[in-house]
Request: fold
Amino acid sequence: MKVKVGNYANRLICNIHTRFMDKKYDYNWPEEMLWSHEDFVIQAIEDGIQSVYNIFNWLWFDRRTQKVKVRIDKWDTWSMDSTLAPIILPMLKQLKQTKHGAPYVYPEDVPAKLRPTKQELLAYTKKAETDSKWFDRWDYVLDEMIWAFEQKSRDDWMSDFDYNKWDREGANAHQERMTKGFKLFGKYYENLWD
Reply:
């Protein structure tokens, strides 16, 4: 197998006004701000430059796509789950380190101590308000996925259960946790973004 994935296509973006406001307010813009004449002039300049950039974006950048080259060898699918595990695992670890947000995690996918209360669920349903454990739930789900792919990347995880005195219950519990991690991976696949 050989996989090469290029960077996403970029676009030209003018940030003159944003940089000006960051410098003027030291990165903490007031929420209710009265703009000065200077702010409006800089915004107008940025809008003019961005309109020129948009022409270049339309002519050049919007026609570019991310380059992806994949070559699959016949042996890659003999044990595809084992082939993909060492690719997925570092991506999950990096996602956990660099994530900037968290999706909705269903209460049944986490332990009771991480589940939202009825009031918190209602607040989310009505006002899209997150609760204090929102990010902890996503961390738990990511940790379960990472653990499952770590185990799949090990060829010898069953050796943790002594063959001389076979621990059937322990091995079954281990396999069930791995299966749960893979199910979470499938369930939250479209939420694996940064």
User: Anything to note?
Assistant: The chain has a mean pLDDT of 87. Residues 158 and 192 are 29 Å apart (CA to CA).
